[in-house]
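Key result, reporting period 2: structure in, sequence out.
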């Protein structure tokens, strides 16, 4: 298959996953997502489809997410294929800027402790020596690294150490060396009282 075809297929998959996340929402009168929440999910899906990491909406349109919007984003994250490292990292980045509940911190900890992704072609299979299919250590660990950096930023902004520590400890148990190194550095900073 050609690269343009694969790219188009990946973009279509992101759009379908966003739509499926909406369809699977439980019917909870008064507790479901608002029109604004759905608009944010639509905007995020457009950004992920465009693969534009520099889209200005990332910095301005996703502040102060409601609990319902955050749940939509977490569902989208879980439905994205594990190989979509950049897209998953973008979702974690946005959620990491909106930490306010125990669920938010639990999500970050779950991402920090995810099983390793062994290659960009198939997270369950390693492609030794093949950078195109395999990916580098940071790319493969990207969502988990973003979760740890989000915890670090929240800690610097006054978040409770206990919450950040759960994310850091999850990263320490990761099977990804880049994640373990960053978590160790953050843990040392906590111990030093920074």
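The corresponding designed sequence is given below.
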């Amino acid at each position: 298959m050609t690269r343009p075809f694969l790219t188009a297929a990946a973009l279509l998959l992101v759009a379908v996953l966003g739509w499926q996340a909406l369809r699977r929402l439980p019917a909870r009168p008064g507790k479901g997502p608002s029109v604004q929440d759905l608009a944010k999910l639509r905007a995020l899906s457009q950004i992920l489809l465009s693969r534009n990491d520099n889209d200005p909406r990332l910095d301005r349109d996703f502040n102060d997410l409601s609990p319902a919007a955050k749940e939509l984003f977490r569902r989208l994250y879980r439905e994205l294929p594990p190989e979509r490292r950049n897209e998953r990292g973008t979702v974690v980045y946005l959620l990491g800027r909106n930490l306010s509940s125990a669920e938010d911190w639990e999500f970050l900890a779950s991402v920090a402790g995810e099983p390793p992704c062994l290659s960009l072609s198939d997270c369950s299979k390693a492609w030794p020596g093949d950078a195109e299919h395999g990916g580098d250590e940071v790319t493969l660990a990207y969502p988990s690294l973003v979760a740890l950096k989000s915890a670090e930023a929240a800690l610097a902004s006054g978040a409770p150490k206990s919450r950040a520590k759960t994310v850091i400890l999850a990263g320490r148990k990761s099977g990804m060396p880049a994640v373990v190194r960053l978590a160790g550095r953050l843990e040392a900073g906590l111990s030093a009282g920074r």
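The CA atoms of residues 137 and 177 lie 8 Å apart. The chain is about 65% helix and 0% strand. This case is discussed further under Risks and Mitigation.
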